[in-house]
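Sanity check

After download, print the first record. It should look like this:
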Amino acid sequence: MEKLHQIGFESSVDDFGIGVSSLSYLNQLPVSEIKIDRSFVNKLNENKGSTIVQTIIQLAKNMGLNTVAEGIETEEQLKLIREMACPTAQGFYFYKPMPIEQVDELIN
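Expected structure tokens:
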């Protein structure tokens, strides 16, 4: 992974905060981005949920990493993520998965 990083590839820690994603990976691997798992985004309206998301965003910022909030499905979630200064969001709120031909139609 280090060789790929040296020639310009970037990598993400996907589903950060669940499963096998660990804080130790942030020091061990040449990652450039943390993708906050949608299970945390779904709990933004809960006090602990928003605290966890805000902490992940701040951690990434402190480490010079980009942050992506996964699973944005509502305007309210997007608003809360923006208020937390998360630079990137993805989810069905924007578009559902589609064939590449339909993506081309969006661009034109």
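If your output differs, re-run the checksum step. Summary of this record's structure: Helices lie at 2-6, 23-28, 38-41, 47-62, 75-83, 100-107.
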